[in-house]
Design goal:
The chain is of the alpha+beta class. Helix content is 29%, strand content 27%. The chain has two domains: 4-98, OB fold (Dihydrolipoamide Acetyltransferase, E2P) (Beta Barrel), CATH 2.40.50; 119-419, Bira Bifunctional Protein, Domain 2 (BirA Bifunctional Protein, domain 2). The chain contains 13 helices and 18 strands. Strands 6-10-11-18-17-16-13-12 form an eight-stranded mixed beta sheet. A five-stranded mixed beta barrel has the order 1-2-3-5-4. A three-stranded antiparallel beta sheet has the order 7-9-8, with no helix packed on it. The structure holds 4-amino-1,4-dioxobutan-2-aminium adenosine-5'-monophosphate (4AD) and magnesium ion (MG).
């Protein structure tokens, strides 16, 4: 068996017979006619079953058919402007594949915990469809951007011997009697890749043992990470803004109906065009102080700080040169002010927070050794990484974009948990 006809292609079958294979989404009856709302993953169609069009047993079965029962329905595609999708199916045959048990998710309101516990079923609903289709488009757009700009895909490992983004969020696992960690970022490996290919990127799952509950953090999330040889912080910011502009514009163009279903006001997304405003950390702090926020200079920004700063702008804002003390060991310090790192965070508008983090890497062997020591990281785990500073070291830079942060923002979701098919958070490992 191989399904050949899908609801999204219904117009091709105008006035012709076809078989739709799918699930009952909803149904109603008016005595002599049953109206079955069918979904097949590509769309929804109303199947009209008249008492004289099918055998008696089939007609009776339709009367009791539980939601999410699966079936194969044969009929004629009849144009009807009022119908969702513009067509109805006038049925003459039904094969019942499986009569479902009583479905736990009904059109009534359910709490988020209930829906998350039933995530494997909740994925069938139209809102989740829209979100995950937007996610798919975002991922395709990210890949297309790098693929069509000369970057080579270099996959980074998931098991790693050392921390990239600080030791406090490492997931540790036993690796044949020694310790391994789930990767927090593919970056260090991309640096090796950039020295081999010039421009590279990786895309894969990354892991952080985030111990607090927030709307923005998952313990398992997907990140796309480019890395470029012979590139400094300025160049990195140019790439980040061109990339983000491309992704956002492509998604609002390609996924109009999904964004409409999500009731996303896209007028703010339409403004995502270069150049993005660029401000230094010090300028961002001045904005917070002027706004009367209680912020201690030298700290990293919290969610309310990021929201306040991004509210000053109508498009993503790039904040560069944070205090080196709050950033990772691999960052290069600003030669004009060594207390600052040559890094950039891109904050999404509308309070969605940091979507991109990146910067220029420390490329000097001796300085990097000192940084590894200062951060109390195990030198032996970084042997290979230090080699990159021994054999043709060059200025290089890159960044990482968290896919789920981008999905949250572009879809206008309040919480990151709906941006990924099966979210993992401090309190959720099921389903
Ligand atoms: O800012 P981060 O920690 O940067 C890095 O990991 C760099 N090594 C990337 C690089 O330069 N190649 O994380 C990058 C992005 C953040 O901007 C955010 O979008 C996302 O990853 N992110 C998370 N998304 C969901 N849940 C979490 N717990 C996240 N932590 C980071
Ligand atoms: Mg960051």
């Amino acid at each position: 068996m191989k399904n050949e006809s899908y609801i999204e292609d219904i117009a091709k079958y105008k006035d012709q017979q076809l078989t739709i294979s799918g699930w009952v989404y909803n149904r109603r009856s008016s005595g002599k006619i049953h109206f079955l709302m069918l979904r097949d993953g590509t769309g929804i169609i109303q199947a009209v079953v008249g008492i004289n069009d099918v055998d008696n047993e089939t007609f009776e079965k339709c009367k009791e058919l539980p939601q999410e029962s699966s079936l194969r329905v044969t009929g004629t595609a009849i144009e009807d402007k009022r119908a969702p999708g513009g067509y109805e199916l006038h049925v003459n045959k039904i094969e019942f594949t499986h009569i479902a048990d009583e479905y736990p998710i009904t059109p009534k309101e359910h709490g988020t915990t209930f829906l998350m516990d039933h995530r494997h079923l909740w994925l069938r609903s139209s809102k989740q469809h829209a979100v995950l289709r937007v996610r798919h488009e975002i991922i395709k757009a990210c890949r297309d951007y790098f693929d069509s700009n000369g970057y080579v895909l270099v996959d980074a490992p998931i098991f790693t011997p050392a921390a990239c983004e600080g030791t406090s969020t490492l997931f540790e696992t036993d690796y044949f009697g020694s310790k391994a960690y789930l990767t927090q970022s593919g970056q260090l490996y991309m640096e090796a890749g950039a020295m081999a290919f010039g421009k590279v990127y990786c895309f894969g799952p990354t892991f952080r043992a985030e111990k607090s509950k927030t709307r923005r953090h998952l313990t398992e999330f997907w990140m796309i990470e480019p890395e470029i040889a012979f590139c400094d912080l300025e160049g990195d910011m140019e790439i980040a803004e061109e990339f983000l502009e491309y992704v956002v514009q492509r998604v609002i163009e390609q996924k109009k109906s999904e964004l409409e279903l999500l009731q996303r006001d896209t007028s703010n997304l339409e403004k995502v065009h270069r150049p993005f405003p660029r401000i230094s950390y010090d300028e961002a702090v001045a904005i917070l102080k002027k706004g009367g926020l209680d912020f201690e200079d030298g700290n990293d920004f919290g969610a309310p700080d990021e929201t306040f700063i991004s509210d000053q702008f109508d498009r993503p804002v790039m904040i560069h040169r944070y205090p080196a003390a709050v950033k990772a060991f691999y960052m290069k310090n600003d030669p004009n002010d060594p207390s600052k790192a040559l890094c950039v965070d891109v904050l999404a508008p509308e309070g969605y927070g940091e979507v991109i983090g990146g910067g220029q890497r420390e490329d000097d062997f001796d300085t990097l050794i000192k940084k590894i020591q200062q951060h109390n990281l195990p030198m032996e785990a970084f042997d290979w990484y230090l080699d990159l500073r021994k054999y043709g070291s060059v200025p290089h830079a890159g960044f990482g974009m968290g896919i789920e942060r981008a999905v949250s923002w572009i879809c206008g979701l309040k919480h990151i948990r709906e941006t990924i098919p099966f979210p993992r958070t401090i309190s959720r490992l099921q389903p």
